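User: I've been going back and forth on whether these two constructs are worth ordering. Before I decide, could you fold them both?

Assistant: Sure. I'll take them in the order you sent them. The first construct and its structure tokens:
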Amino acid sequence: MPDDLTILRPHDSRRINMNEPHEVRYWTDRFNITERELREIISKVGDSVDAVENYLRNSSK
């Protein structure tokens, strides 16, 4: 199924699905980071939005 460009938000707001381009765009824009940075963070803390947010909050100190 092709990527539906009308979908602007993630299906599950608690998890980051790196297999969906629209979700990757959404989360990289929201966190103001690159896709590579998002992938690296997810490899460290998992795909939970809360875990990624906590990582970003604590790593910027």
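The second construct, handled the same way:
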Amino acid sequence: MLKMLTRLHTPDLLHVLASMGHGDELALVDCHFPAVSMARRLVRLDGADLPAALAACLQLMPLDRFVPDPALRMEVAGEPASVPDVQALCQPIIDLAEGRHVPLAGIERHAFYERSKRAYAIVATGEMRTYGCLLIKKGVVLSG
């Protein structure tokens, strides 16, 4: 057992987060997403909802400060401006982890699928609410 980690910081998740480089993307997806068939690397967090999985990742991983949208949410089909409750719950988690407001931008559903296929890894959560899918881009830990 290690100090300061939660039960969601599994060996697989820790390995993926530590192995990612600056600019690599991580997809966090709900239980409806075809994660197994799309993932280059798959981490299963079946017991976690999306907000908890996001908080666990952002506790250890900074978002990229050098791109306009380091956090993306899957848009609702036909309603791109609609923000489902599960996604709205993620905005304060992002802002708290980053110590600043980082808008959760939208990405069209099929574009989300394509980006997820190229992501460094996909984290499959047990999130049951639809559209519980995000992409986050890893940044760097600034020293000094």
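Notes on the second construct follow. Strands lie at 25-29, 42-45, 71-74, 105-107, 121-125, 134-137. The helical segments are 11-19, 35-38, 50-60, 85-88, 90-98, 109-118.
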